[in-house]
Amino acid sequence: MNSFHFTVTHRSQTSKARLGKLSTPHGVVDTPAFIFCATKAAIKGATSHNMRQENTQIILSNTYHLMLQPGPEIVEKMGGLHSFMGWDGPMLTDSGGFQIFSLGHGSVAEEVKGRRQSSRPKSLLKINEEGATFKSYIDGKRHTLTPEKSIQVQRALGADLIVVLDECTPFHVDKSYTERSMHMSHRWAARSLKEFQKRADGRQALYGITQGGVYPDLRRNSADFVNSLPFFGHAVGGSLGANKTQMAEVVEMAMEPLDPSRPVHLLGVGGVSDIFYGVKQGIDTFDCVHPTRLARHGGALVPPSLWESLGEDPQGREHMNLRNARFRDDPRPIDETCGCQTCQTLSRGYIHHLLKARELLAMHALTLHNVHFMNRLLAAIRQAIAVDQLEQEKKKWLI
Amino acid sequence: MNSFHFTVTHRSQTSKARLGKLSTPHGVVDTPAFIFCATKAAIKGATSHNMRQENTQIILSNTYHLMLQPGPEIVEKMGGLHSFMGWDGPMLTDSGGFQIFSLGHGSVAEEVKGRRQSSRPKSLLKINEEGATFKSYIDGKRHTLTPEKSIQVQRALGADLIVVLDECTPFHVDKSYTERSMHMSHRWAARSLKEFQKRADGRQALYGITQGGVYPDLRRNSADFVNSLPFFGHAVGGSLGANKTQMAEVVEMAMEPLDPSRPVHLLGVGGVSDIFYGVKQGIDTFDCVHPTRLARHGGALVPPSLWESLGEDPQGREHMNLRNARFRDDPRPIDETCGCQTCQTLSRGYIHHLLKARELLAMHALTLHNVHFMNRLLAAIRQAIAVDQLEQEKKKWLI
């Protein structure tokens, strides 16, 4: 069995961007890389085989969903997540905290990016030093998630990369709350690590999470803390601010003091502009439900050149809405420059029809395309970093 | 371009079962064969590529659905059904009449098999010599389908095999209604043929439909009629009776007088026992939504040997309900003897989880399995006919 290690193979001369090789027992991930969300141990609309065909390196599953259904004991009995879902590549699970703390039934990403100023979800019953008590979204039963429990569940699930439990604070909390929460998350991280080390057998590697919200001194304090513990990698957590500009500032201040020898994951971020920004700050991996969720709503990710080929302004347009009636008799593929299974075989007109007719195949077709797009984007970013042309490459993907 | 022909390559010594080669411009179908329903130009839960991988020879689409959405002019502009949906094999469309006459929002198959004694659907506004007027299930707009219009629409859709418009009578009508309806359907068939011959360019072949309900003299009269016209093939239409026993009798009386040189299709029938019965009566092709619809409800078609391997009585059980809690931690594939993509990669436990979690992938996985099962069943039937062992083969599939 291969062991875990992370090697930086190239550093940009003009930014903090870097190329790396993240080795796991299930294979090597070339970084920067995008991690797709197989929330309930399934990519919505694509098989593990499809994901491989569209050049996917790594996927993740959500501990929160799997601990409630089918339960970690079932997944463990079935040989762990890789065997359960037929995915033989690298895989990550989160701690489960994100959903408990941030998710009612809405979008997690909106919350963490500060676009929604909601308070706690009603399903969250209690947070204290021990952990968090919440009601299951499936049957309303009470569950308690502690740092130790999260690691135990993630151990049973068996992903390669696992993550410590942290408190995800709502966006609107003040510095005093953020600081208290950060310290509790640090104590939880230490407890997570202790539980992890009890049975560390080389099959999994643990990520710590850097906290501190939008406050530079807290971000530095938190970086010092995670650097001091033997985590394999770091995730950038906590509030990233109220908008994209603030997010960029917060990511920069969070990244600067982190140990550069460890891989860094940016949680729940996956817009094209966010990825370019993150890569320039040295982020190695990203995850977001956006590409696959967008697909289920009829949206195909496309580069700006596509709008130009239609004689239209590409400004701010990252996707094409195939529900639009203009596509009903359009025999062209979504993107003639795309090598995905969908663009090789199906037309915009047919996908438009599938969406209108509410055929399952529409989601499948668009999911394959968006997965391929993200993998193609990240491959292009890696190539550009290698030749120090990231700014030039960015112009091909963002206008 | 290949032309249409049908060659009987072997006749059973012990029944009317036969092997054939049905040649079309898009390839040859080895008969007996099962035709899968891509109702709205899409198999629900599988791509055209998936269908090929699971050994599918031929599929059909429904003229009724496609004439309403996206409309024949769109499909024609997109290069016809084959190009539109990316299926390069043989294909059939029905006339559209079946849905107009028999379908409210319930099951067509239940109606034609006499299991539902409903009267006409509310959406059917008028039937007269000219044709049928009905309301669209999508937007309530009035449409009139005539024999000529059905052929025109099917010409635009561009399937290889097309079918004349007939009146599908409700089950409970008396002999006098059945006879009058039969004669009108004969006149419609002659009009369909005339319209077809106006532009017969060798790209499509037309099937007539034999009528006559459950009445032997009418069945003979109708067979004489369709035999007398230059149809490429025949479909067995009209009421098949109130139950499986009567259906068997009606199929026998309908088949006996039909021209044996033409291929015969049995409309809307696809249970395992029905297929064995039909094959023994000389039926060459079958279609039914059952295998793919069952998949979407969590059912996997399995042979009796599977229940025996579980130590259970296989009597009357043609499928396994993967929603059943007994499968939640079952690491075995649905059927260890099955070669489908699903049985090669996924377990009963995982599919159970996907169903409980309402993941799209559940429908996909079960659809692939059921498609493979039907193709495997028909291949086994063809092999058995070749060596005159159909009765022995039947015991492996039905108890």
Q: Overview of this structure, please?
A:
Chain A is of the alpha/beta class and 399 residues long. Chain A folds into 2 domains: 284 residues, Queuine tRNA-ribosyltransferase-like (TIM Barrel, Alpha-Beta Barrel), CATH 3.20.20; 103 residues, no CATH class. Chain A is 41% helix and 17% strand. Chain A has 17 helices and 16 strands. Chain A has an 8-stranded parallel beta sheet. In chain A, strand 1 and strand 2 form a beta hairpin. In chain A, helix 16 runs antiparallel to helix 17. Chain A is globular, with a radius of gyration of 21 Å. Chain A starts with a strand and ends with a helix. About 4% of the residues of chain A have low confidence. At the A-B interface, helix 15 and helix 16 of A face helix 15 and helix 16 of B.
Label this structure with key terms:
alpha/beta; 2 domains; 17 helices; TIM Barrel; 8-stranded parallel sheet; 17% strand; 399 residues; homodimer
